[in-house]
Amino acid sequence: DADVTQTPRNRITKTGKRIMLECSQTKGHDRMYWYRQDPGLGLRLIYYSFDVKDINKGEISDGYSVSRQAQAKFSLSLESAIPNQTALYFCATSDQSFSEAFFGQGTRLTVV
Amino acid sequence: SQQGEEDPQALSIQEGENATMNCSYKTSINNLQWYRQNSGRGLVHLILIRSNEREKHSGRLRVTLDTSKKSSSLLITASRAADTASYFCATDGRGSQGNLIFGKGTKLSVKP
How many Å apart are CA B21 and CA A87, to the nearest integer? Predict the structure, then answer.
């Protein structure tokens, strides 16, 4: 089994719909992250969580919300999806030393 | 804003040649990491170099760090077609709140 699992892997949704992307990890790490990747822009940080009770906004949090349900689970929600949120979304985890981040396989989201 | 900037944006070489990618960053760092991404997949950690290190090797990879110039390079020797991927540098610089900030990546194509 993968260390970091994202569901769904692909999703097409309509403008205005609410959608949740889920992430679970088996690394036992406290730190979890959501990144967004757009062509030519690299990865940009949306939200991060250093433990279950600690949630922080990243560089591009507008239009997104997150929930840290447990140490192993971190979900990302788009309350009202819009077309410019079409992107590849990655969840990642790391330990406190941040010597290495472990990424999920990504969720390709298309908003039409 | 993004901390690291890779150069070149794209690189095409023949199998057996060496590939060199560069990364520049803006603020002081604790460490710099390089990641690889196969098309549309999650990122995979390659190597970490700490701010007090100047050079590090791992297999066919050689990473250098020049903190005075705020730059790093990744050298892949004797490249193979399987090295075709995008390569990203990531830093935990000042202002990042301990997060990894990624550059936009270099897309490497190795032709057989």
Answer: 25
pLDDT digits (tens, 9 = 90+) for A6-20: 999 999 999 999 999
As a whole number of angstroms, the distance between CA A5 and CA A75 comes to 11
In this structure, the number of other CB atoms found within 10 A of the CB of residue A40 comes to 9
Among B2, B41, B45, select the one facing A106 at the smallest CB separation.
Answer: B41
**For chain B, how big is the Rg over CA atoms in Å?**
13
Per residue in B41-73, pLDDT tens?
899 999 999 999 999 999 999 999 999 999 999
- Per DSSP, A60 falls in state T
Q: For tokens 């260390």, what's the residue?
A: A3
B interface test, pick of A21, A43, A94 with most B CB neighbours within 10 Å: A43
Q: Cβ contacts of residue B50 below 8 Å, gap of 6+?
A: B30, B31
CA–CA dist B41, B62 (Å, integer): 24
What A58-63 contacts at long range (C-beta under 8 Å, 24+ apart), as own/partner pairs, is A58/A33, A58/A34, A58/B99, A59/B1, A60/A36
